[in-house]
Amino acid sequence: MTDAFDLPRAGGTDRLSARSSGTVRIVGAGLLGASIGHALVALGVDVVLEDTSPAQLRLAIDYGAGRAAREDDTPSLVVVSVPPDVTADVIAAELARFPEAVVTDVASVKLEPLRTLRQRGVDLTRYIGSHPLAGRERGGAISARADIFVGRPWVVCRDGETRASDLAVVEGLILDLGATPIEMSPEEHDRSVALVSHVPQLVASLLAGRFVDAPDGSLRLAGQGVRDTTRIAASAPELWVQILGANAAPVVDVLDGLAADLTTVADALRDPEATGARRAVADTIRRGNDGVERLPGKHGQNRRFETVVVMVDDRAGQLGKLFGDLGDLDVNVEDLRLEHSPGALFGLAEISVAPGVVRRCVDGLQDRGWKIASTSND
């Protein structure tokens, strides 16, 4: 298994062979742009950075995401990583400025920029839209990491005019960054991200918004479930206004369906003793179970794992010791989640393992002095 942290934050190494060749120009030195730069620099690729913000550009360069642009630069690939409301403008400018370069973008909405460019009559032969499904709650060059794309899907939107050689350039970039290329039409992409990215952002924000006026006593009861549900609510409002506005129709379709589902549950709970009310609630929970089962797991598989919850003392080195003991037991950690209870001197490590090793895992850890809080078989 490839460890994401095999890719360093900044460059200076050529231990891996890059598929990308020549100079790669990145316009927009924020989180995604600088992260792409870090990963490519680590592979020995010549990376040029450009940004309308001098401070952002200097910061990204100082952190090692690339170098400043020169007048004689002739990039083979241009990656546009700017806010959605200026994506089309920058794509058009880069296509005109570098007539030999392939141009791609990483905007989270694909149809709106494409429509704008077509309406302007821009020759899009060398343009291939793309979008990495990766990111962090924090933005900017200071938050950039070379490994945020590793194992993540990266959508490529080509059309009938796309040359095979140009497609190979974009796919080479994606593979260099450790991501998995997936081909979709712009329409399919925008419908998909409305469901799995844009509406979840709104739901998380709406739920977290209920905490603003909540009593402090209520919030002290918050556990890992509510933290998981609202994690992405910390995202930047100014960026999401642009994203949601550019993908409004698909987002509204999902929201309308969700609103209908919420109404059904609310109506059932207004009179829990009414005929069919309990079934409506149970069906809602069960349908959620079925939906979660469809989410791809490790390596894109739908395979489910069992969980073992271990109590870990809040002391330095304890988590490392746990991993060491699991290694000695020949138990592979498929996934890990940590939960901390306010005021407690220990945390809970929820470890996902293959079903066949649960008993060996539990018995072996207990023999080594670990306390098992629960397993998914309990």
UniProtKB/TrEMBL annotation:
Gene3D superfamilies: 6-phosphogluconate dehydrogenase C-terminal like domain, NAD(P)-binding Rossmann-like Domain. It holds the Pfam family PDH_C. Residues 22-299 form the Prephenate/arogenate dehydrogenase domain. Belongs to the prephenate/arogenate dehydrogenase family. InterPro entries: 6-PGluconate_DH-like_C_sf, NAD(P)-bd_dom_sf, PDH_C, PDH_N, Preph/Arog_dehydrog, Prephen_DH. One of its GO terms (molecular function) is prephenate dehydrogenase (NAD+) activity. It is an enzyme of class 1 (oxidoreductase). Keywords: Oxidoreductase. It comes from the Bacteria. PROSITE patterns: PDH_ADH. This is Prephenate dehydrogenase. It comes from Microbacterium aquimaris. Its EC number is 1.3.1.12.
